[in-house]
Specification:
By secondary structure, the protein is of the alpha/beta class. The chain is built from 7 helices and 9 strands. The chain has a single domain, classed as 3-Layer(aba) Sandwich (Rossmann fold), CATH 3.40.50. The strands form 2 sheets. It has a 6-stranded mixed β-sheet with strand order 2-1-3-4-9-8, sandwiched between helices. Strands 6-5-7 form a 3-stranded mixed β-sheet.
Length: about 200
């Protein structure tokens, strides 16, 4: 049964994200993707980085079904594990000791603005707890910088998000960085991306 979901933004941004990931991902081990959504990114990056194991996760059962379906369609069952039922706010994260020995990076794409600020804090806190020294945390999405959105379209998008859920909205990069630093994560790069998005990379110190 084909239970795949298709998110239009995925096909637009995955190549630009991949370029940044090539600079920061480890040469081996496991990458944990938080809030994998449809799974389109997960299977694409698994194919692009065959030397690593891409572990998808999502708290939404429909999303996990979609991820599994994408894995089957792309014939990646022997390489990719089934997605984890992982909610960043539910600590501890459901990660086994064996899994943690191979965990070399965490990736989070387009989650911060469509979730409460508490989820961002949990992502940073959990990443700090589970990553080894110098391992990267990659975050992608729209951000405010110095309190301002990077474009008029992002300002309108922020208003739209808050109308849907008052706890949602585009986060301040400085505020995210400050909280990350308080949890032992150092910001090492900020890359401007297409469609007024940003890629931010932290590392565990």
């Amino acid at each position: 049964m084909d239970e795949r979901l298709f998110f239009s933004s995925t096909s637009r941004n995955r190549k630009s994200i991949e370029k940044v990931l090539r600079k920061v991902l480890p040469s081996q081990g496991t990458v944990l993707e938080i809030a994998s959504g449809s799974g389109e990114h997960a299977v694409s990056f698994q194919n692009s980085f065959p030397q690593i194991t891409w572990q998808a996760s999502d708290p939404d059962s429909l999303h996990r079904k979609s991820i599994n379906s994408w894995i089957k369609v792309k014939r990646l069952q022997e390489k990719m594990p089934t997605p984890l039922d992982l909610d960043v706010e539910k600590m501890p994260w459901p990660l086994s000791k064996q899994f943690l020995t191979s965990l070399n990076a965490i990736v989070c794409i387009n989650m911060l603005h469509i979730s409460p600020w508490s989820c961002t804090k949990s992502l940073l806190r959990g990443s700090s707890l589970h990553l080894n020294k110098d391992a990267p945390l990659f975050i992608y999405g729209p951000f405010r910088e110095k309190g301002k959105t990077t474009s008029a379209s992002n300002e309108n998008f922020d208003k739209y998000l808050k109308e849907k859920n008052k706890l949602w909205g585009i986060r301040n990069l400085e505020e995210v960085t400050k909280y990350a630093e308080s949890k032992g994560l150092e910001r090492i790069s900020v890359t401007e991306m297409p469609a007024n998005n940003i890629s931010v990379v932290f590392k565990k110190i």
